[in-house]
Amino acid sequence: MYEKSPKNQLHIQKYLSANCFGDYYTRKGLDIKTRELLTLSMLIALGGTEPQIKGGYPRTLNAIKCLNEVFPE
Predict the structure, then answer these.
(1) Is 58 in contact with 66 (CB distance < 8 Å)?
(2) pTM here?
(3) Helices 57-70 + 32-46 axis angle, to 10
């Protein structure tokens, strides 16, 4: 991601990575599975967020795996 960023936008990429992922994923209170499931649920509820859901494909799969653990077949 950083390699493809223009030099004058690199600071923005680093800020977004640290803020959007590092800060929230390292907070205490929720485990990663619950956090991913809640994030996916909120994106679906908002609607019009298909690009974010597709862009976070590995996280989406993790959230679906979490759902299967909560509601086994």
Answers:
(1) no
(2) 0.54
(3) 110
